[in-house]
Amino acid sequence: MIKTNAHTHLELSGLKDLCPVTPLPFIQWVMALTQAMNHIDLSAIIEKMSESIDYLEKTNTSHICDISSIGLSIQPLFNSNLRGIVFLEILSLDSRDAYIKFEQIKVKIKKFQKHHNWGKMIIGISIHSPFTCPPDVISGITKWTNENKIPICIHISESKDEQNLFLMKPSGFKEYFLNLKIINKTTPIQFMESIHALSKNVFLVHCVHLNDKDISIIKKRGCSVIHCPRSNYLLNNNRMKIDKILSNNIPLFLGTDSLASSPSLDINDEVDFCYDYHDKKISKEILMGLITKPIDFSFN
Ligand SMILES: [Zn+2]
């Protein structure tokens, strides 16, 4: 039986205290997370991550897409019974730093391609977001991943502040990203399209703030979308237009997100919440269909 949780950050499993009980402004949560990550203890990460993997296996999760910021979840996931993708994250606005991280990830991919469990679990690349990685690096990564059939994951169109940043409107993120060069007023999806960074191997996480043109681009490029409704709700990020994603036949998956923004890693809890969150308009049967299909990483 397939049970897919398409978005986790297992390395954040020790940060349950950051998970809001009632909706919190997104930027406030991002700041708290950044602070917490600066003081995090590596042995605590390893212990909590291992508890999370046990929990996923006990709750019969079969497939997972995990984002790894520091590389600690790779080995435990390759040694687990789970199948899926560990996306190694690049988060830097400095091109040199980002390219160094990219080169290090390529070396890790080459190394793990010899692992006996490669194929059951594979390594992909996570570009943290379209505004936390330089455009030239995003283009370089997507060119390489296309040539090498490696999947990419990116958090995109998650918050109103992100949308406003790209549309050159007042944004709570502006003061943190003064060096970010946005040349044309555009949406995050249209920005990615303009630098040729969207293709079939790209998983777009969140996609809350999309207009009709964004949706048609996602469809045309064959990207998959990952919906994390509890995280979107608790971080005050509005509601995805799930009916439009489904009616356009865009491949859609559900993910819990990390324990820092979601109360559990059981994707069945996400289905229950998702049903109510979208006013019971999407049937439980359809929602169950989103978690009982495997992640396709063949990209043929
Ligand atoms: Zn995430």
Question: Would you kindly provide a written description of the structure presented here, covering whatever features stand out?
Answer:
It is a single chain. With 300 residues, this protein is an alpha/beta fold. It has one domain: Metal-dependent hydrolases (TIM Barrel). 41% of the residues lie in helices and 14% in strands. It has twelve helices and eight strands. The chain has helices spanning 26-38, 42-58, 74-78, 95-112, 135-148, 160-166, 188-194, 212-221, 229-234, 242-247, 267-277, 284-291; strands at residues 4-8, 63-68, 83-90, 121-127, 152-156, 202-206, 224-227, 252-254. The protein is globular, with a radius of gyration of 18 Å. The mean pLDDT is 94. The structure holds zinc ion (ZN).
Task: Name some characteristics of this structure.
single chain, 300 residues, alpha/beta, TIM Barrel, eight-stranded parallel sheet, 12 helices, 8 strands, 41% helix, globular, binds zinc ion
Task: Note the beta-strand portion.
Answer: 5-15%
Number of domains: 1
Number of strands: 8
Sheet with the most strands? 8 strands, parallel
Strand-pairing-aware structural class: alpha/beta
- Rg (C-alpha, Å): 18 Å
What is the name of the CATH topology? Answer: TIM Barrel
CATH level 1 name: Alpha Beta
The share of residues in helices is 40-55%
Give the CATH H-level superfamily.
Metal-dependent hydrolases
End-to-end Cα distance, whole Å, is 24 Å
What bound compounds does this protein have? zinc ion
Oligomer: single chain
Uncertain regions spanning at least 5 consecutive residues: none
The global form is globular
| Main sheet strand line-up | 1-2-3-4-5-6-7-8
CATH architecture: Alpha-Beta Barrel
User: What pattern of helices and strands is seen along the backbone?
Assistant: EHHEHEHEHEHHEHEHHEHH
**What is the helix tally?**
12
Tell me, rounded to a whole number, the average pLDDT: 94
